[in-house]
């Protein structure tokens, strides 16, 4: 009985607490707002990718010396 309650508690926590941001994103109705949100995420990921590449270049320069 206790293990089933434990897993039900985990499922309830994930459904009602952790998925709140996803429910908010799902409820976006406007095409422009959805695309704006996607563009912001793309810019953030692209910036992180460029940062990662710059760190790789720094590591490559220091390892060759």
Summarize the structure.
This protein has 65 residues and is an all-alpha fold. It is built from 3 helices and no strands.
* Helix percent band: over 70%
H-E order: HHH
Largest sheet: none
Basic shape: flat
Secondary-structure content class: mainly alpha
Which residue ranges are poorly predicted, with pLDDT under 50 across at least 5 consecutive positions? Answer: none
End-to-end C-alpha gap: 63 Å
Rg from alpha-carbon coordinates: 21 Å
Number of strands: 0
Number of helices: 3
Average pLDDT figure: 88
Range of strand content: under 5%
Task: Tell me about this structure.
This protein has one domain. It is built from three helices and no strands.
Topology:
Layout: H1 2-18, H2 20-26, H3 31-64
Which descriptors apply to this entry?
single chain; 65 residues; mainly alpha; 3 helices; 0% strand; flat
